[in-house]
Design goal:
By secondary structure, this protein is α/β, with parallel strands linked by helices. The chain is built from eight helices and eight strands, in the order E-E-E-H-E-E-E-E-H-E-H-H-H-H-H-H. It has helices at 41-48, 114-131, 141-144, 158-163, 188-200, 212-225, 236-247, 250-253, and strands at residues 12-13, 19-20, 30-35, 59-61, 67-69, 76-77, 95-100, 138-140. A hairpin with a 5-residue loop joins strand 4 and strand 5.
Length: 254
């Protein structure tokens, strides 16, 4: 494919060859946000558009807020890799992938410019409206691939997106003392925590054992929803925030 008409009217087209059919004629019901994690935006964009990279996204948002569309939304871009959410393992077939130019953790996790975030908000709103994507289905790469991925990172302003009508959010509970759970703990409270993470969408195994995998899922949750401290320890703040997020979901609040 050499060119196509942009699905988002503000986007410029920069075709990537890296895409395929959405499995089973699936339609996107999720938006997945990434940071590029490379030293320069130009280098990241070039990589996403090179045949040998075998990676791509539907959109690329520059630091200045410019939006480029690399893959038509009807096509399956290759951005999620091995991932999982709410029982789905082919995230690429059900998602719209948005790469945000940011050097990420390898580059010291720089702040996201306001004009870039505003562009992400407008793009997510547009995609969400056209595809009827639920707020809780706007996620980070770290949510669907804990441990393996940490983007878009703890500096990504999820709260600001929510205030603008994008994504799912509750104000995190303050970090305080009290009982907590960590690696090596076991029992019914750990099982309850694992059940809540699984209900929200994470690939958390309900074993009653606080394993390295459980800690990784807790870290992923904290990175998105309680970024003030990311340590994989399920303290009161983490558990309470998770509980209120679940309670605010339409499928549990009725």
């Amino acid at each position: 494919m050499t060119s196509f008409e942009a699905d988002y009217r503000k986007a410029l087209v920069r075709p990537s060859p890296n895409h395929g059919e959405r499995a089973g004629g699936r339609k996107p019901d999720m938006i997945l946000l990434h940071y590029t994690g490379m030293p320069t935006p130009d280098g990241a964009l070039e990589w996403l558009c090179r045949d040998e990279s075998q990676v791509s996204s539907h959109y690329f948002v520059g630091e200045d807020g410019e939006v480029l569309q690399l893959v038509p939304e009807e096509r399956r871009a290759w951005h999620a890799g091995k991932s999982y959410w709410q029982g789905e393992t082919d995230i690429n077939s059900v998602s719209i992938g948005i790469e945000i130019a940011n050097a990420g953790h390898p580059g010291g996790l720089p702040e996201y410019p306001q004009e870039q975030i505003q562009a992400v908000i407008e793009l997510c709103r547009d995609c969400g409206q056209r595809w009827s994507i639920a707020p809780e289905r706007v996620l980070g790469h770290s949510d669907v691939a804990p441990i393996r991925k940490v983007d878009p990172g703890e500096k990504f302003p999820w709260a600001g997106l929510h205030r603008a009508g994008v994504g799912h959010w509750v104000e995190p509970a303050p970090i305080a003392g009290g009982r907590f759970f960590q690696r090596g703990d076991h029992g019914q409270p750990v099982e309850a925590l694992q059940s809540m993470l699984s209900l929200y969408g994470y690939a958390t195994e309900i074993t009653g054992e606080f394993s390295d995998k459980t800690a990784g899922d807790v870290e992923a949750f904290q990175r998105h929803f309680r970024p003030a401290r990311i340590d994989g320890i399920a303290d009161f703040s983490t558990i309470d925030t998770l509980h209120r997020l679940l309670a605010s979901l339409p499928r549990y609040s009725s």
